[in-house]
Design a protein that fits this description.
Chain A contains ten helices and nine strands. By secondary structure, chain A is α/β, with parallel strands linked by helices. The C terminus of chain A is likely disordered. By secondary structure, chain B is mainly α. Classes of the chains: A alpha/beta, B mainly alpha. Chain B: Keywords: Cell membrane, Membrane, Transmembrane, Transmembrane helix, Transport. Chain B: Pfam families: BPD_transp_1.
Chain lengths: 280, 280
């Protein structure tokens, strides 16, 4: 099993209800995208699943266990099997890329191996292979503060793939990438999930990318699940209703080249034909 | 986004102004009685009689002593002082590093969630902090007086006294430096199952190394000065030499010793700058 939420809710310390009555079940190897306007609770949901936050109501099962009933050691071993891709990669700027990638396996390596790897990288080949999937193999020994925002975001993805988790959580993993790179990076994530059998749960701002790469879409708004459907059964009106508060346009990634010159964002939205890429 | 809803005559005044003025007034009102209590009367310095007293005191420092015999003693004492300071800081690190790793909230795994073992962890952190407070609350001169009685006159008492007090100071500031930098990288490693040391080495040290080094070298510089005071109670080094010179009313020797201090501080400064550059 990937994970299961049963009428889970999350209220932050300041009283803000980030999530309520969320019930979801995602199987092993399943690929699901969550979309919704900003402030919908996408990040909270991912942090809940990543055991970074604890649900204030309801039940949560991740990879077959209730993380908050586990002992400290068992929770640590469970966390090592969950890979979270953060929207802004949590990588210190002075770290070298190879070290940043190796940090992905710190949950599996014994402490001595992690510390040894700071003196001499223990698995250069593995880090190289992970980077090569994102066209960054030549940056292996560079410092992370020499990378652009988009390159750093891809290093963040490569690091989680290097972790080899059983559940991949991705919080807007391609937000800093241009359309072509975003598409390729999501393709790599999907391929990894298909290859390793890891479940993939990604929040995406760009609706077109979600429709293209994910067979199941969850719409989140105001901390509640609005719809949870196979991609083929989603309609344009459902999508427009989900984003009603953000205006008439749907947030998309791949702008049509012909519309790129216009300044009116709504003109852009009109030329996107969501159906052309649906349900892959 | 919703400019129209909040366009109703926004105040062009900084809403914080009143609070800032208020706190400034409070600070002044508190400061005044403190200055009275501290008998703060700087104008007394410029009284004609007092100027003469200070002039003759400082005049006694000239010319600096340069006899070969004294310079030989001075070299020995300088080396001893540097040895006391360095050994004292090294021993202080043995106390400060484990205690700061124990006490810092930046590495608290059980705070995530919060998860299992949070009560024990919180108590361990509080105990660590309490120990650090105790170590630094007692001035090094008091420890030195005690150790001189036990170990006899000589540098060993100074080293131990420095180790204890400076262990407390270094530990407290290390703890706070680790909490004041960006802690997301360390948290991300903990959330992926990494251990405390891994999170420290891969998540915190890359960002904190410069600051930690600079503070440690600064403390070495303070240790050099502190060893003077302790020398007055017989704990060896430049302080003991200075004590003898002052007792023999030999201002020239004192002046040469003070010059050595200036050189040592300049040395610490350039060492710190070099290390910071190396770690940048």
């Amino acid at each position: 099993m990937g994970f299961e939420l049963e009428s889970a809710g999350l209220t932050h310390g300041n009283g803000f209800r980030a999530l309520q009555r969320v019930s979801l079940r995602v199987g092993r190897g399943e690929r699901v995208a969550v979309i919704g306007p900003s402030g919908a609770g996408k990040t909270s949901l991912i942090r809940l699943l990543g055991t970074a936050l604890r649900p204030t109501e309801g039940r949560l099962d991740v990879l077959g266990a209730n993380p908050w009933r586990l002992s400290a050691g068992a929770l640590r071993r469970l966390r090592a099997r969950i890979g979270t891709i953060h929207q802004s990669p949590p990588i210190p700027p002075r770290l070298r890329v190879v070290t940043a990638i190796h940090a992905g396996r710190l949950g599996r390596w014994p402490a001595w191996k992690g510390l040894l790897s700071l003196l001499y990288p223990v698995d250069v080949a593995g880090a190289h292979a992970a980077l090569a999937r994102f066209d960054l193999a030549d940056r292996l020994f560079e410092r992370c503060d020499r990378l652009s925002g988009g390159q750093l975001q891809r290093v963040g993805i490569a690091r989680v793939l290097y972790q080899q988790p059983d559940l991949i959580l991705a919080d807007e993993p391609v937000s800093a990438l241009d359309p072509a790179l975003a598409d390729a990076a999501l393709g790599e994530l999907v391929a990894e999930s298909a290859r390793s059998g890891a479940s993939l749960f990604a929040s995406l701002h760009a609706v077109d990318l979600a429709l293209k790469w994910f067979p199941r879409i969850i719409g989140l708004r105001g901390g509640e699940v609005v719809f949870d459907l196979p991609t083929a059964r989603l309609t344009d009106s459902m999508l427009h209703e989900l984003y009603a508060a953000e205006g008439a346009m749907l947030p998309v990634q791949a702008r049509d080249a012909a519309a790129g010159a216009t300044t009116d964002p709504e003109a852009d939205a009109k030329v996107i034909r969501l159906d052309t890429s649906r349900g892959r | 986004m919703s400019a129209s809803t909040q366009a109703l005559s926004p105040p062009h005044r900084d809403p914080d102004t009143r609070a800032r003025l208020g706190w400034t007034l409070v600070a002044l009102v508190l400061l005044w009685p403190l200055l009275v209590l501290a008998e703060f009367r700087p104008w007394a310095l410029f009284d004609a009689g007092n100027l003469r007293v200070m002039g003759s005191f400082l005049g006694g420092f000239l010319p600096p002593a340069t006899s070969t015999e004294f310079l030989g003693y001075l070299l020995d004492a300088t080396l001893e002082t540097m040895a006391i300071a360095t050994a004292g800081i090294a021993l202080a690190l043995l106390l400060a590093v484990p205690l700061s790793i124990l006490s810092t909230r930046a590495l608290a795994v059980s705070k995530i969630g919060p998860g299992p073992g949070r009560l024990g962890d919180r108590m361990a952190r509080a105990a660590g902090r309490a120990l650090l407070t105790f170590l630094r609350a007692i001035p090094e001169i008091v420890w030195a007086l005690m150790f001189v009685r036990v170990l006899g006159l000589g540098p060993a008492a100074g080293v131990l006294a420095l180790a204890i007090t400076y262990g407390g100071m270094l530990g407290k500031v290390y703890t706070e430096i680790l909490e004041s930098i960006d802690t997301r990288p360390a948290r991300a490693i903990l959330e992926a199952g990494g251990g405390r040391f891994a999170a420290l080495a891969y998540g915190l040290l890359p960002n904190a190394a410069q600051e930690l080094t600079s503070y440690t070298v600064y403390r070495w510089e303070c240790a050099v000065r502190a060893s003077v005071i302790m020398g007055f109670v017989g704990a060896g080094g430049l302080g003991q030499l200075m004590d003898q010179s002052m007792k023999m009313l030999n201002g020239g020797e004192a002046a040469t010793i003070l010059f050595v201090f200036l050189v040592l501080v300049l040395f610490a400064d350039s060492l710190s700058a070099t290390l910071r550059r190396a770690l940048a």
